């Protein structure tokens, strides 16, 4: 579609261009090209307003673990809507779905997490993490211990503190971020940042040493927490080298720095265990989660904290008369009921075992792409993975960013009937609904390859 049609017409696409601001979209290109309007969804497929079918290869935004149209989740929402369509959790108010969901989360949580706070999105959960860390260290009489260390290429969301912890320049540039007290250490991407002759293990050791050097430079009495996605998602699906988190956590322990696991993508089966923390060997003091918590059918997120942190919060709230944080929709009963049903379905349908059973084919099809002329590296963990496109496989040289190669490949995949996502430069990611079958995995990779072949330089 061209711009005169879009600016003059009365189609849904024209009305979109005239009325909507789109996230993570080139706003000027969008005015000319318009939207892809998705009308319906079923299983791993979505359909546009012309009836064209697409495999949703990214589960929306890494989130619709049960695919589209899962009747059990729809029914859970309707039942709760009839019973009690809204209530809140301020001033000691509570609802059954919120209580049951908190219990269920604690039952499946890794390590010794003991209390749950609800939010509505990953960003809100991570902003809450920052505030809880500060509140907790105030309760301990450590008012200087406030800095939070994240990593370059991390993604923790877009609200002011969460975007600050995100380590991707486009989320900072011209938004006047990061805020103070948020720092970034090195990204554990061996292919890009490993030195000549350095083994993966030595690289992991260096990552921990660089973290320690940062803590010492800043002063351990000023550093409160370290936050990490077990596998970095939007930064390019970066799987850290073996032993990385063990080495990092040894440094954190030494300097009394809390470990925060951002499980917003990795939680709920994605990496082949219930939590990415289990797959990557993390023992979190705080955990944030969202997305697949409700299979994304309704917005809900959670922050889980250790008993020690909760006791600090209790102490501090006594001082102030109340714990003065919370959202109108914290623990909203309808999303909570859908999330509870999602977690029950994960057990009833053995979803983690299903992921373990099909992940080898997903990995095999991904690894086969290593021979493709455009692919420099393949990275995969459970049912999430990406290829990094390079201009020269031997030197690992990237393409000129102005070519937008990954974005063009993703467009070609879309033409072929697959929705994939270009992330953080020339990486193309797949993170399909967990319910995907082996035949569908094969079909998805055939379309993925078709897209890559379409942008091969002549
Ligand atoms: N953390 C991680 C690891 C994420 O991937 C995301 C979203 N992609 C967020 C936080 C932010 O979540 P939301 O978009 O729900 O605010």
UniProtKB/TrEMBL annotation:
CDD domains: OAT_like (cd00610). One of its GO terms (molecular function) is transaminase activity. Pfam families: Aminotran_3. Keywords: Aminotransferase, Pyridoxal phosphate, Transferase. InterPro entries: Aminotrans_3 (IPR005814), Aminotrans_3_PPA_site (IPR049704), PyrdxlP-dep_Trfase (IPR015424), PyrdxlP-dep_Trfase_major (IPR015421), PyrdxlP-dep_Trfase_small (IPR015422). Its cofactor is pyridoxal 5'-phosphate. Coiled coil: none annotated. NCBIfam families: PRK06105.1, PRK07480.1. Belongs to the class-III pyridoxal-phosphate-dependent aminotransferase family. This is Aspartate aminotransferase family protein.
């Amino acid at each position: 579609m061209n711009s005169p049609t879009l600016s003059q017409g009365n189609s849904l696409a024209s009305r979109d261009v005239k009325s909507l601001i789109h996230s993570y979209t080139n706003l000027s290109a969008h005015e000319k090209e318009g939207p892809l309007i998705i009308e319906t969804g079923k299983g791993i497929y979505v359909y546009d307003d012309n009836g064209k079918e697409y495999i949703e290869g990214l589960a929306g935004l890494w989130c619709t673990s049960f695919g589209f149209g899962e009747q059990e989740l729809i029914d859970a929402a309707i039942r709760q809507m009839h019973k009690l369509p809204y209530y809140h959790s301020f001033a000691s108010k509570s609802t059954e779905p919120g209580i049951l969901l908190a219990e269920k989360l604690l039952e499946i949580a890794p390590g010794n997490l003991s209390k749950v706070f609800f939010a509505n999105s990953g960003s809100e959960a991570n902003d809450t993490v920052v505030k809880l860390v500060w509140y907790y260290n105030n309760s301990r009489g450590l008012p200087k211990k406030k800095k939070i260390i994240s990593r370059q290429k991390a993604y923790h969301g877009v609200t002011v503190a969460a975007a600050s912890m995100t380590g991707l320049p486009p989320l900072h540039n011209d938004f006047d971020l990061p805020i103070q007290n948020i720092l970034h250490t090195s990204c554990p991407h061996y292919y890009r940042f490993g030195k000549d002759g350095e083994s993966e293990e030595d690289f992991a050791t260096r990552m921990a040493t660089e973290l320690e050097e940062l803590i010492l430079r800043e002063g351990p009495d000023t550093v409160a927490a370290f936050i990490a996605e077990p596998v970095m998602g939007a930064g390019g699906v970066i799987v850290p080298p073996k032993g990385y988190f063990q080495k990092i956590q040894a440094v954190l322990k030494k300097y009394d720095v809390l470990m925060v696991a951002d499980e917003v993508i990795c939680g709920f089966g994605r990496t082949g265990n219930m939590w990415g923390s289990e797959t990557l060997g993390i023992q979190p003091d705080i955990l944030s989660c969202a997305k697949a918590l409700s299979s994304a059918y309704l917005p809900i997120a959670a922050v889980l904290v250790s008993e020690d942190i909760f006791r600090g919060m209790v102490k501090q709230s006594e001082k102030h008369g109340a714990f003065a944080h919370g959202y109108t929709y914290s623990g909203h009963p309808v999303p909570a009921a859908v999330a509870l049903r999602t977690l029950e379905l994960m057990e009833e349908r053995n979803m983690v075992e299903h992921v373990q059973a099909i992940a080898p084919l997903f990995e095999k099809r991904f690894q086969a792409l290593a021979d493709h002329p455009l692919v420099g590296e393949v990275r995969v963990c459970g049912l999430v993975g990406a290829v990094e496109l390079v201009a020269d496989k031997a030197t690992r040289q990237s393409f000129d960013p102005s070519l937008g190669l990954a974005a063009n490949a993703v467009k070609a995949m879309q033409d072929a009937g697959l929705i994939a996502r270009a992330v953080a430069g020339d990486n193309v990611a797949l993170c399909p609904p967990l319910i995907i079958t082996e035949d569908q995995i094969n079909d998805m990779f055939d379309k993925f390859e078709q897209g890559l072949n379409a942008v091969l330089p002549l």
